[in-house]
Amino acid sequence: MTDKPFSENLWKLGLLLWPFATTAMAINLFLLGLLWQALGWPALSPVNALIWSLPLGLPATWAAARWVRSLIREGEGR
């Protein structure tokens, strides 16, 4: 019985990428909050950006895992 390579399993790849995608989402949300403040809306605090990034990081992680998997497949010539 042969196991799939690590890069073929989106769950494993997603677990590896989740901290990075979620952190990137938090940074983007905080910067969006700064832009909102320039438009006169209330600012988004760093803590709120971190809290909102937890659920919003999941779709970003899924997209990043699919993208990385396609890059690995391309690099392997599949």
How would you describe this structure to a colleague?
The protein has about 80 residues and is an all-alpha fold. The chain has a domain of about 45 residues. About 75% of the residues lie in helices and about 0% in strands. The chain has 2 helices and no strands. It is elongated, with a radius of gyration of 17 Å. The two termini are about 20 Å apart. The relative contact order is 0.18. The model has no long low-confidence stretch (mean pLDDT about 90).
Distance between the termini: 21 Å
Shape by Cα distribution: elongated
* Residue-averaged pLDDT: 90
Beta content? under 5%
Helix coverage percent: over 70%
As residue ranges, the low-confidence spans are none
Tally of helical segments = 2
Overview in brief:
By secondary structure, this protein is mostly helical. The chain has helices spanning 10-38, 46-76. α1 (10-38) packs across α2 (46-76).
